[in-house]
Specification:
This protein is 8% helix and 34% strand. By secondary structure, it is mainly beta. It has a single domain (21-118), classed as Head decoration protein D (Virus Head Decoration Protein, Chain: A), CATH 2.40.300.10. The chain has a 5-stranded mixed barrel. Strands 3-7 form a two-stranded antiparallel sheet. The chain is globular and about 50 Å long.
Amino acid sequence: MKYFEKVDGVVYDELIGGMYEPIEIGNVSLSGGASVKRGELICADSLGAWNQVSVAADASKPLAIATADFTADSIQAVTPAYFSGVFNREKIICGAESASLDVATFEPEMRKQNLRLTSLKNY
C-alpha cells in the first residue's frame, strides 16, 4: 500500500436528495435471478422476496430503493436497500420493463414509508 496516493475525486450520482430525513438501510432478499440497479424502486411480495415494481398496484406493497447494482443468482440473494431518506425523483428508476410507470404513481405510498422525494436543482 502506498503511503501517499493521488485520488481523482468522487463522482456524485445525485440519487440522495438531502439529509433532512434520516437514511435507513436494511437488507432485502431478492428473488432468484432478479437484477436491480442503484436507484431502482423495489417492492416485497407476499413471501418476502423483493423485485422491481412492475405495475401501479405494487404501490400498496412495502417499498424500498436499491442501494447498488446487484444480480441474484438462481436462488434468493441478499442486498442492501434504502428504507427511508430523501431522494431525487429524477434519479429513481420505476419498472425497467414498463415505460408507462413513473415515480408519481408511487409517491403517496413512498411518503407514508418515509421515502421522501425532492427534485434536482439547476444552479
